[in-house]
Amino acid sequence: MVSRFLIALCALFAWSWSVGAPDPIVSWSASLIPGDARPGESAQIVVTGKIKDGWHIYAMKQTGGPIATEITLPDTSVLKPNGEAIQPQPIEADDPNFGIRVGYHKGATAFALPVQLGAKIEGAQKVIVNVRWQACNDTSCAIPETTPVTFTFTPGSGPARPDRTSPITAVPEQPEGHVAGQAAPSAGQDGKQAAQLESGEGDVSKQVEKARSEGLLAFLRLAATLGLLSLLTPCVFPMIPITVSYFAKPVSTEGGSNLRGAFAFSIGIISTFTIIGFAVTLLFGASGTQDLATNPILNLVIAILFVVFALNLFGVFEIRMPSFLLNRAQSGTRRGGFAGPLFMGVTAAITSMTCTVPFVGTILALATKEFFYPLMGMIGFSLAFATPFFLLALFPQSLAKLPKSGSWMSSVKVFMGFIEIAAAVKFASNADLVWHLGMLTRPVFVAIWAIVALVAALYLMGWIALPTAPNGPKIGIGRRVLGLAMAGVGGYCLASLNGAPLGEFSAFLPPDPYPGRAATGDQAVKWVYNFDAAKQQAASAGRPIFVNFTGYTCTNCRWMEQNMFPRPAVKNALDNFIAVELFTDGGTPTDESNRKLRDQMTGVLTLPVYVIVAQDGRVVKWFEGSTRNEEAFLEFLRSGLESARMVASR
Q: Are residues 133 and 219 in the same domain?
């Protein structure tokens, strides 16, 4: 009788406990990814916590205040830890419970612990991983807990594959309901770069959006910074000798100030960037400025313009305004008027636009959504861009007041003329590439540059003279040193025809091989030129896809293809992918299709853009722009490869 009573009492107690037990704050589960990992290979234990609404758990390595989340694996011969635990970027905010700034996770969140499978395991395996965690809401915190999470897996058959033994350090794919975090403002540079790599916040477009959200002052500051950075692009350099030559002429027989001309020159730059760029964007969309920059007719006109500038610097003729404007414009210019300097400013802006599109286009992309911020952004950008030219326009006036400039000024002008010829070849090459003429291939381009450099060297050494610019009675040591340097450049170009690398110069050259032609030598990357064909090869080879969205006229694209991709570590990393190269700026139906694919995958309007795609066509990572940081690009390739493999294993 007593025993029956005790049994009934226990049953009643168990029922009441089950009815009254609250839902767990965090429900934990675990699995091994990839699911086909073999003995001896690397994998990840992916631990997923489904956090109750209104609650959060704290980031790993959280110091001070709450208990940080920690994942540990007991000693076992089945799985061995192969690196530190990994978490997605946490949310960062001030915690009212502890009065400090903390990192935390909300919603469903997946963590990962890199492991290596035991070399001799076989058959189904059971593993327990321990999760130490603490949950809080806005007013209180639960007691810290350590939860054992059990999971099973069966290793794949066969020996370990050599390409799958390195630790997998990629952040695991996050489950539905995950609340994405953001990088801490006070993070160190390394941490900031890592956060940018994972979240995509390292590209120019995200920086613009971030500055836009912080207010007008931050937006103007970023626009001005982009304007100053644009001065470092190669298309700006040829305008420097033209500016010096133009403003070095006496502006007034009375020795008046050149301030008005410099101001007009700057207004020409600012108005061109702001008015023309803004109008093109409103009429033709966010990619309108890029279309304008890659337009073959515009590039050909700029090439002709640089040849004209070169002939002017050689002393063949003087640049004059059209006759119907001569009385007003040119005479006004000689008195410090507006017309001539304004025209020169407009020219400077247009010729530099092909290289400033990555900066200008990103700011102007907002013009399709609103008016005020893009307008202010372009004013800030162009004002910063014009400031050095404004100072440069004033500086020659001081030189003009010197007692004697000497024959060196004439020599400098002629040398700058050779620079203009080299720049003209670059813009002519842009038109040739877009029209697919095949005339200015890489060897032809380099040969022309070699000839220009060697002729410049002969002139600087005094061995040849121009009828319009005769040599002075004595060749100075500085001129001879510059002549030797140009001879070295010419020899360097000739050596590249036999395979020598051109380094930084390669950014200005046409692609190798020329688009549409077969490669004639060893290539760093074996490219496929059709995305559907790449998907078929990826499916048959069991490899993810590396997509290189590039452009015919993109100097940053050339630099990456000629200087980053051939590096041994990068080349080895790219060998794990099916590599596809897609041009987007030629205006053909194929190029338009490639551009739409780029927009669909990334939403980025500028070049280059690199995308890693899993075998099923899912985008797992993308990287915008060029970089000199080899390790940053390698980390993008490695983490993208790991993410693509995890997607394929599910």
A: no
